[in-house]
Amino acid sequence: MKLTPILIFFFFSQLLSSQTQDKVDFVRGAVFIEPIPQEKQIKGSVSYQFDVKSDVESIFLDAVNMEFSKVALDDETIDFEYDNRKLTIKPQLLKDKNHTLRIDYVTKPKQTVYFIEGNPIEPPEILAGPFSPDDVIYEGDWTKIVQVWTQGQGKYTSHWLPSLDDMTDKIEFDISIIADMGFTVISNGKLKSMDSIDEFSKLWQFDMQNPMSSYLVGFAIGNFDKVTVQSSSGIPIELYYEPKDSLKVEPTYRYSKRIFDFLEQEIGVAYPWQNYKQVPVQDFLYAGMENTTCTIFSNQYVIDSTAFVDKNYVNVNAHELAHQWFGNLVTETSSEHHWLHEGFATFYAYLAERDIFGNDYYYWRLWETATALNRFSEDDQGEALQNPNAGSLTFYEKGAWALVMLQEKVGEEAFKKAIKTYLKTYAYQSVSIPDFITEMEKESGLDLKEFHQTWLRSDEFPMEEVKAFLSKKSASLNRFFELQDQIGEQKDTAETIVKSNWENFNSSFLKRNLVLKYGSQFSPSFLQEVLHTDDLKERQSVILSQNTIPKELQTEMESLLNDTSYTTIEAALYRLWTDFPEKRAQYLDATNGIDGFPNKNIRLLWLTLALVTPDYQPDRTPTYFQELTQYTGSAYHFETRLLAFQYLQNIGGFAPESLKNLIDACNHHVWHFKKSAMDMLNNFLKEEGNLAKVKSLYPSLSQEEKRFLDKTLGE
Ligand SMILES: [Zn+2]
């Protein structure tokens, strides 16, 4: 899984409280699912084949809030116990036999399956066929729902499928899903068949050949097209997109084949599954999730070429793919060994990025994470990688660093060989950190006790060791460290020192980072010199480093409004508009119509500035206000909604429509968005007269919203 940057600092892995059962081994699960969109329910049936390893009298499956219409062992109905979390049967079964357990159920999942509403889509074309309306067995109303997708890890697949929360029991899941005619279904494994079952719906049947843990089972249903490419080794890679985004396919999925080929080569073990698919969905909880063969990721990464400069999918793309080996092929026995998932996926994603963007990118990226980890460690917040409750910064970034340093210690050749043996030895099984370390010690002939202590057991981040490594590997970082030492606390000397060397720096990363660090001290004339470059990121570092724009730089800074970078344009528009009020109308005219990133960062800023600029197109003010308000609605991505709410809050612009949307947001499935919405609502209510405004909305609210509001208002 890859978190969105905003989540990195306060995401903590959940302690798994799942129970294990070692007397039976679930081998295969044939799953049949029918989502019922109007009820947000899942109707399902699963048939498990299991082996009995030693005589057993009790067998359970994790199954949350389900109603069962049938529980049968070897085709005979059997009594069961159910406490709303666990389904238990108590048969007398002898060792070395295999059996089938079938469960038919219906459930309304509170989490793990997400039904996304949106603008109504066209109803499916009614096909002529040998059916009469009375034969219709499928009655799903898909007119309101635009997508249904799952997130198993951390949320538990047992909310929609009786399965095993315990990660160590791996099952070959073959999934079949029934959905409306107009939709595409994507799930684990290879699509075996897709048949119309009546004039409204289709059955999609997928086949897996190898087992996986239950948290990796997933599906996505929506209006998707796809492009298929093939890896050099012949694996089909399906890249999904919504038809409206067809022009964004290339920048979104840029380098996908290259990343795939690179990882297969670098890891040294062939991709272990039949195919690979990637699906962008609306309002996803994280950046991406590596369901086996079926990565689901946030559609905020569906981007155009301009966005690629600042925010692209490359890292998440590589991270989720690396999990197909590290996490999916070999799976941690428990969260104490979470390094084996996230540290490895993060490390291999950086290697893939190095292959594409070069060494300088790689080492500066590592330096950035080292800085964050060091700050964390110095604040006594440091965590050991083996701490099962560590935060994501530890599991992901310290985890990647541990592998960088391990590779350095044992050498690239031994490292690669050990990785290969480790993956082959434990393929489709569970692993622990000692399993991995043992392979590494065997292959390298080294004693890794000290490594284990420093990197896996200790809470500290060994910054000195890390800095020495980076100085040795990267000439530009070495230069950066020297300049930092030279300048020290005397920031006023920064310009003289940096300027005298500027022409000799041949690293764009070095230049940008010097400007970001010391740019607020630089004179206008030097900044002007810096701006005389075609390097978009160097130019961007100038605008990001300035708290106010010196008058002498006005013209140069105005040229940034034409740069092909949404981060640059947003920063430049805001700074110029603030610092040079007399030219506000011109700046707004120059940037009208630019959306920016998928979250519409520039458009939302633009609308806000247009609304607060006196005399700017006064006849259009109501239209702009309406547009900004509209972006708070549930048809938009939560990132867009959040920005729109924040801007409206800043300009005191909450009106009935946006307030109603704010109340709706307080019930959103993305926790940090929900939390922000609740904070904003509470702040709004603190101001006099606003309570009445909120109360007047009551007649238009749903029962659920009314209940929530009653609670919030303490009534
Ligand atoms: Zn991950």
What would your notes on this structure say?
There is one protein chain. The chain is α+β, with helices and mostly antiparallel strands. It has four domains: 22-120 and 139-220, tricorn interacting facor f3 domain (Immunoglobulin-like, Sandwich), CATH 2.60.40.1730; 224-324, Neutral Protease Domain 2 (Neutral Protease, domain 2), CATH 1.10.390.10; 325-472, Orthogonal Bundle (Neutral Protease, domain 2), CATH 1.10.390.10; 592-715. The chain is built from 26 helices and 22 strands. Strand 19 (288-289) and strand 20 form a beta hairpin. The structure holds zinc ion (ZN).
Poorly predicted runs? 8-16, 120-140
- How do the strands of the widest beta sheet line up side by side? 5-4-8-2-1-11-14-13
CATH topology call of the largest domain: Immunoglobulin-like
Total number of distinct structural domains = 4
Radius of gyration: 28 Å
CATH level 1 class label of the largest domain: Mainly Beta
Percent of residues in helices: 40-55%
Strand percentage: 15-25%
| First and last CA, distance | 40 Å
Our count of helices gives 26
Strand count, sense and barrel status of the largest sheet are: 8 strands, mixed
CATH architecture title of the largest domain: Sandwich
